[in-house]
Specification:
By secondary structure, the protein is α/β, with parallel strands linked by helices. It has a domain of 215 residues: Rossmann fold (3-Layer(aba) Sandwich), CATH 3.40.50.720. The strands form four sheets. It has a six-stranded parallel sheet, sandwiched between helices. A three-stranded mixed sheet has the order 7-8-13. A three-stranded mixed sheet has the order 12-9-14. Strand 4, helix 5 and strand 5 form a beta-alpha-beta unit. Helix 6 crosses helix 11, helix 6 crosses helix 13 and helix 11 crosses helix 13. The longest helix has 21 residues. It starts with 6 loop residues before the first strand and ends with a helix.
Length: 351
């Protein structure tokens, strides 16, 4: 990519999109194109087509999506499949129609079958049943992969897809109803630390400034007892936090800045014909949710007990990506898990 090329980052305010912007800027790309949801609804086909025809971006990073953890996926099934399908089809079609030189489509490791052989190879796609708790989202992401592939085959486009593992870091979503596991743990242990220290003013400020989900709110006039009751309803009590599931599933986590570096690396260096239908981007090792919770609580400084509610779902038993293909191309992650968690927590505190 030329440093003066016009580059559109779809979803620039999200976890991945904001990391893409930071990475591109750090590499000297100055002609970056963004639009907020208020200015451009990517679910509106005509608006997307008009935007692409007017602005004519040369390169596109498709990082816009409706995302969330097990609870959000299970609650908003129709929205997860519809929104993600429409966003992908609109942006990919408009990119083709307007002559975009290269597009990078961001997928998700949830596309793989629930019981696929570990670590997950790119060739495992569509070889078995999906995890039911995130099937709608996974189907939409699989459709986007296939769209890119078939547009390449029929129209000669250069649209590549990447499948990252679980992501975390600055810009994450900390709404406990819709967030993924790592930011949810970070916030729960932070609130638990405040509760253990009886810092109710800070608890009220946290819940008032940042959505907690589940329709729960607190204002400055709320009593300490009301604040404690709200936290107890989501498993946070003095000196103890209760988490969903058994803690036994394994998950792999990648710091979002590392993903952004990998995506820019691929856009600068490789074409669709060089990487195949898509390429995995992972850290290379995984941990159990129990181990993750212990690490997060240590970073946050919560001294209490970690409990598990086995009546709640665990999700897929294990999701570890085989990242051999991108490693062979010359990229490897830089950020250790504990370091990344610390950076994500510092961002949470400063925002």
């Amino acid at each position: 990519m030329d440093r003066n090329a016009k580059i559109y980052v779809a979803g620039h305010k999200g976890l991945v999109g904001s990391a893409m912007i930071r990475m591109l800027q750090s590499k000297g790309y100055a002609n970056l194109l963004t639009r907020s949801l208020e200015d451009l609804d990517l679910k509106n086909q005509q608006a997307v087509m008009d935007f692409f025809q007017t602005e004519r971006p040369e390169y596109v990073f498709l990082a816009a999506a409706k995302v969330g953890g097990i609870l959000a996926n299970s609650t908003f099934k129709a929205e997860f499949i519809y929104d993600n399908l429409v966003i992908a089809t609109n942006v990919i079609e408009a990119s083709y129609r307007s002559g975009v030189k290269k597009l990078l489509n961001l997928g998700s490791s949830c596309i793989f079958p629930k019981l696929a052989e570990q670590p997950l190879k790119e060739s495992s796609l569509l070889t078995g049943l999906l995890e039911p708790t995130n099937e709608p989202y996974a189907i939409a992401k699989i459709a986007a992969i296939k769209l890119c592939r078939y547009y390449n085959e029929q129209y000669g486009t250069n649209f590549i897809s990447v499948m990252p593992t679980n992501l975390y870091g600055p810009g994450d979503n900390f709404d406990l109803q819709t967030s993924h596991v790592l930011p949810a743990l970070t916030r729960k242990f932070h609130l638990a630390k405040l509760l253990t220290g009886r810092k109710f003013t800070e608890i009220r400020d946290d819940i008032r400034k940042r959505q907690i989900g589940f329709g729960l709110t607190l204002d400055r006039s709320a009593s300490d007892a009301q604040a404690e009751q709200v936290l107890a309803s989501i498993g946070i009590k003095p000196n103890a936090v209760t988490l969903w599931g058994t803690g036994s599933p394994f998950r792999e986590f990648l710091f979002v800045n590392d993903l952004a570096e990998a995506c820019v690396f691929l856009m600068e260096t490789y074409d669709a014909k060089n990487i195949g239908e898509f390429v995995n981007i992972g850290f290379g090792t995984d941990v159990t949710i129990r181990e993750l919770a212990s690490t997060v609580s240590s970073v946050v400084g919560f001294p209490g007990e970690i409990l598990f509610d086995s009546s709640k779902p665990d999700g897929t038993p294990r999701k570890l990506l085989d990242s051999g293909r991108i490693n062979e191309l010359g990229w490897r992650p830089r950020t250790a898990l504990a370091v990344g968690i610390r950076l994500g927590y510092e961002w949470y505190l400063s925002h």
